[in-house]
């Protein structure tokens, strides 16, 4: 349908084309990452409400006010919802100055795919703006656009992109940790010479050649916030097609800068002082941008402006930045302290304290509720005596009596919590099982911007590394299998495993643990899980002998021996029926001089934590082996 | 039967230079000719209204607005004339309904810009008058009648606007054109009175930048020598622009910080300021710092003169809190680059001050000088009492 609207408007614009092309924009309404999971499972990120208005509306308002006349919205995840939303919005009305086309495909996996499609479909005719569907901004890009055009006129097609930055020094709360960047630029021409993400880096390297590039004025800046708004020439789309490995803008910028001398393309930057521009790239940014919105930093885009022109959303602004939509009722003794936005027809009980909070439409909030930095969406029910601190509560959630939400909790859609529960800091509750989507992960990780969102950083990181470990394990198994089939020497195996270690970024300790596990499970993999203990050991022992040099390479220090034994124990704990084989394995590794008796004794005497591992230690064969070891030790001492 | 394209285009050609200017400006958005079939005309009209609305929403990122309120008044009136010419209506009642409906949206788009609402009320009043004239009753009786009705039946007088007159449209458009001409001349009319108020070797204080005051002072400077002290009007410091502009006309100008207003006041003979709105009680909604200035003037018994064209007169009272204030981005108060401190403090940047009527000596409008106590009378002449609420 959006396409139809486009056709209608085209003949009219054709006349203009000769003198001046209408400004176009590419809006990517998909984040290609899972920062907002599990919220984004039910609703695409671009439609999540920020100060009671969908994020994509802010982006479109920004584009329209900056003079964009044609916008292509690319969606992938839940594209039908985005399409439906846009068709209902003011952007698809015939009077809209900005014609919006929605382009959907399930095949987009990254920004790169979108831009390759832009190129394939030949959508853009001249310079265009590239933004994400979650950018909130009031920057007037016309000056940057003019500079960009000037540069392109001066030196034909050399400058391909102008990135827009906002000054914000380190420590600023609107700075997104993911986007910490170091930029080296030419002070006069504003050309970017070096671009590097700086998160968690202690040392930075600048290539020397950037200081020899002819200019005598350099700036190295760390006080910039990437607004994720860029002015691109049509070449950008072509470059993405030529370099099919470019996935993100980061790849593109770095690739272009590295190949600058070969391709001759340059990237420039524009630093804005007055405007506001930020991308809601994770929940912390959601918190900050919402509070900036309420504190009117993005004027004239403010809650009471009702720029999205939605029926019944006009709110009033009164002292201390308290915004109220029509139909709000406030109980006796309740206080809206400061920076509060309350949606239409929301009912608030008595003696509540509300500050720095956004509440959506049609919510019911009980008595004695304390809300601070809470983001409550639509149709939420909160019972009496609830305390919420810096948390997100999605649509249709029910919070029962006496629940306390500590900092950085997320209650996703339709969750019911309580009564009388205290949720720890950083708890995420969702109706979806966290592992539900693990299969889909594989694709999405490719484009993930590789920093965990710090609220559930541990969780993200955890799942991420275990995923790599699994991959690594499969690779090691493959390598050993090949080594066996093709009779590859142990030195080469070590070499291969080491290179895998770097490829998957696995620590030395983990390498050893995985190696042990792979080798011990090798017979099961080859002969099936049903083999008897005797068959198992008869298969395993020659293998151990064959690969002894590989083990020796990894087991060197006493601590390594302990780790090695611990992982052996772990494997055998999972397979109770084969406990008898453990002794034979220990015996052979002892004889192969992979493990020393001291190590084995120490492991044996270690106070074990679980009943099962104590049971393992009481195994008859094992006790005999230990006894034999002790005797051997004594006799060797006696010899001396 | 209502659409008379030929006649409409004639009216546009006969319009003042301003009208052609707006036309030319509007032509940028759509290259549709004035003469076109009905359906297209309506979409063209609604497109124009939408673009005006979004412009209103976006305008004024700093103090006041990017364009003067005189321009806003002219644009509003030109748009209302276009609505009158192009919208579908059969009688005065329907036209008033259309204008009210669009007017509500326009005022909601930028509540602090009262000129828009004022112009809508003026046009509604024009329609009432033209209708009454077409019906044959004189203006005088109409007003009495409405006052009488206000007391007895209240609000039902619209039933009488259902009669159809062929020439009503042409008459209304002509009257709106007159209004536009009046708007054109307001600044000149005010500055013509300058010599009566400014005498040689006087020290005059003003605050911020008002186009009307600027023209007023420049006009006086052609004949007289005087000294102007400009309070800079932080945080936007429009006073600096004002001072530069005055200097170019060889007026002796001094810029002072806002904090020095009281200290300097003892040397000042007269305070001349502009305003954003004149409220129904004779008070002002003026740029930030004006209240301080007015109090200092009162303390030193210095006369305070307000230059305000008639279109700034609003039937609003100062107690309507919702729309009274305008808070802009706190960037000017505490720059965004400040960093960490921003998350710990709340910064506000209000744009307007309320100045109570008792601090004001005289209003100078395009129709002459008036005391604040007379404002209510002007109000009843300009607007129909039923139009106060759109």
Question: What would you note in describing this structure?
Answer:
Chain A has 640 residues and is α/β, with parallel strands linked by helices. Helix content of chain A is 41%, strand content 19%. In chain A, a hairpin with a 5-residue loop joins strand 9 (181-186) and strand 10 (192-197). In chain A, helix 16 (558-574) crosses helix 18 (597-605). The longest helix of chain A is centred in the last third of the chain and has 30 residues, at 457-486. Chain A is globular. In chain A, 42% of the residues are buried. Chain B is α/β, with parallel strands linked by helices and 390 residues long. Chain B contains 15 helices and 10 strands. In chain B, strand 5 (277-278) and strand 6 (284-287) form a beta hairpin. Chain B is globular and about 65 Å long. Chain A binds chain B through residues 12, 15, 64-65, 93-97, 138, 166-174, 223, 273-274, 276, 295-300, 305-307, 314, 316-318, 320-321, 338-339, and chain B through 29, 31, 43, 46-47, 49-51, 54, 57-58, 60-61, 108, 321-322, 325, 327-331, 336-337, 339-340, 342-343, 346-349.
Give descriptors for this structure.
heterodimer; A: 640 residues; alpha/beta; eight-stranded mixed sheet; 20 helices; 34 strands; globular; B: 390 residues; seven-stranded mixed sheet; 49% helix
